[in-house]
Amino acid sequence: MATTEPARPGFLLPLLLLAGFRTLIDDLHAELARQGHPELRPLHGFVLQAVGPDGTTATELGQRLGVSKQAAGKTVDRLVALGYLERADDPRDARRKLVRMTARGHDGLARSASVFDTLRGRWSTVLGPERVAAIEDDLRTVAAADLFRLDVPGWFGT
């Protein structure tokens, strides 16, 4: 008698994708803590990316993240207190304040990129480099074209 593979319910796919994402993010933050950034949280990475190398205003930051100006401002306050961001006058418009990354913010992002490379390497060791590349290719095929949007905090909040 032939055995059949158990059914794979549709709800399992997003749960597995989320579990994989969560595993990467948890491993990232454990390593960042070991490297001197114990206070960084997953949301902070989206914020630092959205601030970008040239800085932005709180209003623009909120738009990039898909959250209110007030929510963006609260997160900026926290990251300023932690030394990852600073507020500065906008040299192009004296009426505006820019939010910019500090050296600590740049260091956190650079370390994150390096740790992600290490984590990808670990997954390649476990699954094989071809499987990891195939997973990435398959996700590129089915994911939206604007896959690197930064508005995830706002998306989760709605």
Automatic annotation (TrEMBL):
Protein name per its UniProtKB record: MarR family winged helix-turn-helix transcriptional regulator
User: What is the superkingdom listed in this entry's lineage?
Assistant: Bacteria
- Listed SUPFAM superfamilies: Winged helix' DNA-binding domain
Q: Which Gene3D superfamilies match?
A: Winged helix-like DNA-binding domain superfamily/Winged helix DNA-binding domain
Please state every residue range assigned to the domain named HTH marR-type.
Answer: 33-131
**InterPro entries, from UniProt?**
HTH_MarR-typ, MarR/SlyA-like, WH-like_DNA-bd_sf, WH_DNA-bd_sf
SMART domains for the chain: HTH_MARR
